[in-house]
Amino acid sequence: MLKSDQRESVDWWLELQQKLDRGRGYFKLRMYDDAARHLEDALRLCPELHAARLLLAAARLRLSDWIGARRHFQLIAVLAENPKWQAAAYNGLGCVQAVQSQLEQAKSCFRRALEADPSCADAMHNLQACLDARGRIRLRFGAGEVEAAVPRDAAGAGRESAGKGAR
Length: 167
Known about the structure:
Layout: H1 4-28, H2 32-45, H3 50-62, H4 66-79, H5 83-99, H6 103-116, H7 121-131, E1 136-141, E2 144-149
Antiparallel strand pairs: 1-2
């Protein structure tokens, strides 16, 4: 028989796992509002769970909730110690900046993603897309894409190459 505190730990773990599984499932079904709700519940139970936070940020990105997406990407970028998590977070921040027509800030974020993880293919693609920007650009984040309009004054600006890590 489990002791009371052991029982509470098991119940907590099961609830966390259920919220996370549902969040992932709804995300895969592209039901981003539902995914976000369950992932927020998971984060209330375990705020340091970077996997849930990254998926929540991606859901917010897909919902065009730029403020929510930015907040969660920033937390991961600052708190995560794993370079791949940091790269994903900076790539997401770059996508948010780009859709808000802040191409210089977006390029900076994509470069930071590549500094954290030079093999981050999405950041390489996105940086090059910003450097070659004309009209509308398609940015990659995970399995999805985000489209951004390029302001007229930014088109053709900064024709430098993607730099270190871009091949």
